[in-house]
Structures are given as C-alpha cells and as structure tokens.
Amino acid sequence: FSKDEILTLYLNRAYLGAGARGFEAAAQRYFGKSANEVGPAEAAMLAGLLKAPTRYAPTANLKRSQDRAAVVLGLMHDQSYLTDA
After folding, report:
1. Cβ neighbours of residue 28 under 8 Å, at least 6 residues apart?
2. Has residue 36 been placed in a domain?
3. 57 vs 72: CA distance, rounded Å
4. What residues make up the domain containing 62?
5. Is 39 a member of any domain?
6. Which of 16, 33, 40, 57 would staple 26 via disulfide (CB 3.0–4.6 Å)?
7. Which CATH number does the domain housing residue 59 bear?
8. pLDDT per residue over 5-60, tens digit each?
C-alpha cells in the first residue's frame, strides 16, 4: 500500500463517535452533509474527534467539542495549513 492508500483507508474506517466510522459518515451524522461540504471549523471538529471520539463528540458535549476544534484550528494555523484570510 502507498502512503495515500493507507491514509484513505484510515480516514474511511476511523471511529469518530456516535456510531460513525470514517469522516464521511461522521460528517453526515454530525452536520447532515458530505465530508466534501464541511468548512474548516467543522473539519477541525471532526479531526478533533480522533483523540477521544466519545469525549469530544458534539452530541455528548458541544462546548468540549468546540474547544477541541479550536485547538485543532490553532494548530492548523500555526503550521500554515490555514491562513487568516
């Protein structure tokens, strides 16, 4: 397997809480839309679930989930994955 194939497999199978496996299922579960349609804040919330899906699930504790997403967004900004624009 290539690195891209391994990443794709992981992103499609990772448990993200509330019975959702993979980012597409989680985007549908939490936001009611495709993973291709989520914005940066929603993507950060999904990425934040990887650390502890049950603890950071927005359905369990929205504030905790938003706080975790803010951490992820900050890290993405610090590493130049996001700009201020």
Report:
1. 20, 34
2. yes
3. 14
4. 3-78
5. yes
6. 16
7. 1.10.3810.10
8. 999 999 999 999 999 999 999 999 999 999 999 999 999 999 999 999 999 999 99
